[in-house]
Amino acid sequence: LAKTTQPISMDSYEGQEVNITCSHNNIATNDYITWYQQFPSQGPRFIIQGYKTKVTNEVASLFIPADRKSSTLSLPRVSLSDTAVYYCLVGDGDNAGNMLTFGGGTRLMVKP
Amino acid sequence: ETGVTQTPRHLVMGMTNKKSLKCEQHLGHNAMYWYKQSAKKPLELMFVYNFKEQTENNSVPSRFSPECPNSSHLFLHLHTLQPEDSALYLCASSQGASGELNEQFFGPGTRLTVL
Q1: Are A80 and A12 in contact (CB under 8 A)?
Q2: pLDDT tens for each residue of B78-91
Q3: Residues in B lying within 8 Å of A, measured between beta carbons
Q4: CA distances (Å), origin A106, targets A57, A110, B17
Q5: B112: nearest CA in chain A?
Q6: For A4-56, how does the pLDDT look when each residue is reduced to its tens digit (9 = 90+)?
Q7: Which of B55, B90, B103 faces A34 most closely, judged by CB atoms?
Q8: Cross-chain CB nearest to B98 (options A43, A46, A95)
Q9: Are the beta carbons of B102 and A91 separated by less than 8 Å?
Q10: DSSP letters spanning B14-83
Q11: Contacts of residue A101 in chain B, CB cutoff 8 Å?
Q12: Distance, in angstroms, between B109 CA and closest chain A CA?
């Protein structure tokens, strides 16, 4: 089971780019890296997923170095509504059952 | 709307009551999950079902009993709960249970209060 480590909290201002890095030193060969966003009293929402290099969608970019022992979620030009908790997850790739562990996440506060 | 619905949205029950939480997904997914989120704590994975078969039970007390009659429905039967079981219970589904198929879609949750 791959464990992840993220900063507990981050502050930013509207319009800035925010980069949240996650460490996953014991990631397995078949593991994918997935990021979720969660607002208070709501279920998490999928943001982006990747295996290696760079992935970009309409919401964010995910940078994964060659050794895959870390990943960085990049949120361009954040707004107040991006204030949320962001979770990094690494799936263990076992077809018999996939334990996905949500760590403590990173609490992002976007200020005006 | 994520395609995953949960009922009820709020539930208050006594320690001797029996109640059930219901989850339904309209996405054609094969895997479903129950999570527990207590105040200021990370989400805790409770159960995983893949093609109606339970594949993970994350050391959950027997007072929580899951049921998955088909790939679209998931229940969590509650019996003789404790006040510390008060939490937000989240259901999720995904196309598969591993790898890139594991993008999970979460329901809005059931806020449970045990008196």
Answers
A1: no
A2: 999 999 999 999 99
A3: 2, 4, 33, 35, 42-45, 48, 50, 55-56, 58, 88, 90, 92, 97-100, 102-109, 111
A4: 20, 12, 37
A5: A41
A6: 899 999 999 999 999 999 999 988 888 888 899 999 888 999 999 999 999 99
A7: B103
A8: A95
A9: yes
A10: -TT-EEEEEEEE-S--SEEEEEEE-TTS--EEEEEEETTEEEEE-S--TTEEEEEEETTEEEEEEES--G
A11: 45
A12: 6
User: In the beta sheet, which residues pair with residue B35?
Assistant: B45, B90
Flag whether residue A42 sits within 8 Å of chain B, measured between CB atoms: yes
A66 to chain B, any CB pair closer than 8 A? The answer is no
Residue A112 burial class via C-beta count within 10 angstroms: exposed 0-12, middle 13-18, buried 19 and up: exposed
Strands B18-25 and B4-7 turn out to be antiparallel
- Looking at residue B81, its pLDDT comes to 94
Task: Measure CB to CB from residue B102 to each of A43, A100, A102 and give the nearest one.
Answer: A100
